[in-house]
Amino acid sequence: MFETRDEQGQKRTILVAEDEPALAHTIAETLDLQGLETVVVQDGAAALQVASRRRPALILLDVSRPATTGLAVCDRLKATPETAGIPVVFVTTQGGQTDLWRDHAAAPVAYLIKPFSPTELIGVVEKALNGRSIDSIESIEPAPRQTDLAALS
Questions:
Q1: Is pLDDT of 28 > 60?
Q2: 3 state SS for the chain
Q3: Taking the CB of residue 108, how many other CB atoms lie within 10 A of it?
Q4: Can you give the C-alpha Rg of the chain in angstroms?
Q5: pTM: predicted TM-score of the whole model, two decimal places
Q6: Phi, psi of 20 (to 5 degrees)
Q7: Considering only CA atoms, which of 99, 38, 47, 43 is closest in space to residue 78?
Q8: How far apart are CA 56 and CA 89, in angstroms?
């Protein structure tokens, strides 16, 4: 499992940058049920602003963003001292692209390939929050369920 609270006892915040409202809602609800706080944004500019202001514990970043690509957002996050240390997980339908991103200077700590289950989401978040880098969803063991998440998928 992972700690849901930071050193000050506050809920750890996960920034979700996802332009598909239904998926963003499912991700947020799944993580909220695990005791985490989620902040959802729909574009890259908002993701950069919220990350700088809130300093989330983790960022789930849709790679295929409408205005600014997830890779460009990740580059800017990693180039900014205030946000450089925040782990980023790419959420993508482009599973074949992960080898290309791995060698990129602003490579994410993990990839979450769409479609994914709530259990897979929790497993990736757990490993990322615990500081363990993973290459793809296929390489993780799902975390045990704390509640019935089947209704969310």
A1: yes
A2: CCCCECCCCCECEEEEECCCHHHHHHHHHHHHHCCCEEEEECCHHHHHHHHHHHCCCEEEEECCCCCCCHHHHHHHHHHCCCCCCCCEEEEECCHHHHHHHHCCCCCCCEEEECCCCHHHHHHHHHHHHCCCCCCCHHHCCCCCCCCCCHHHC
A3: 27
A4: 14
A5: 0.81
A6: -90, 105
A7: 47
A8: 13
Structure tokens, 70: 């997830």
Residue 127 confidence (pLDDT) above 50: yes
State how far the alpha carbon of 145 is from the alpha carbons of 57, 118, 142, in Å. Answer: 21, 9, 9
Cα separation, 127 vs 3, whole angstroms: 11
Contact 13, 35 (CB under 8 A): no
The residue type found at 13 is T
Single-letter amino acid code for the residue at 138 = E
For 69-114, the pLDDT digits (tens) are 788 899 999 999 999 999 999 898 876 554 555 555 567 888 888 8
What is the band of 144 on the pLDDT scale with cuts at 50, 70, 90? very low
Of 42, 59, 27, 36, the closest CA to residue 152 belongs to: 27
Please write the tens of the pLDDT for every residue from 111-124.
Answer: 888 899 999 999 99
